[in-house]
Specification:
- The protein is 30% helix and 16% strand.
- By secondary structure, the chain is α/β, with parallel strands linked by helices.
- It has one domain: Zn-dependent exopeptidases (Aminopeptidase, 3-Layer(aba) Sandwich).
- Strands 1-3-2-6-11-9-10 form a 7-stranded mixed β-sheet, with helices on both faces.
- A hairpin with a 2-residue loop joins strand 4 and strand 5.
- It is globular and about 50 Å long.
Amino acid sequence: MFRMTTTPNPRLLASNETPAACALNPQGRRPAVLVCEHASRRIPAALNGLGLSAEAAVSHAAWDIGALDLSRALAEALDCPLVHSTISRLVYDCNRPPDSAGAMPQTSEVFDIPGNRGLSAPQRAARVHEVYEPFRTLLSETLDTRPEPQVLVTIHSFTPVYNGAPRAVELGLLHDADDRAAHTMLRHATGSGLRVALNEPYSATDGVTHTLREHGIARGIPNVMIEVRNDLIDTPKGLDRIAGILIPILRATVDELTSAGAVQ
């Protein structure tokens, strides 16, 4: 039976497991901020691996495979900041608000998450306080200390097969109420050689645009969520290819949206 470590007034993260979020290249010159909410599969020792199977612990359920490496490559090439979580999304999904069932899911596709069953209010609050809030604060501070106009871009990956159904799309561009960045990026992606689609394999109705709403739409800045099929970026060669395709697309998108008079 799965058992979680318990101590009086426990802290979730040990001192050697912090920070829960990092900002790379905060002084980057291009007016964009990249975000990778599902960058890590790291689970704090206090949670005893959440009781995950060996397969689940390294699967897409625990993190977005290839997303952090792609985000780093894009941030370096574009010379812009990157904010990313350092904790598995199964501990807390930083692209979900605290009241969402998906913030601390009990299942993820075919995998059970035993360590997320029957969480008490204090246990849930600890994850919000130690994982979500540091990420949210760091992203807010990064955006607020940079000159406007700017563009918010979140980077994700998705599986080629989900619940037994193959996915043909290779690059998804997702938006919520503000579709400026998604449509601009779609136009610049024409001729990229990738199968590109708007709001696939997810859309705002799936609850995946929390970061866009919380940090982009609330500030009135263009924002887009990029989803790359993870079999395209799970090797160094594949990663280099996709980064090489996305760099000029993102550069053109950001520069167009932040040119004089482009952002209202």
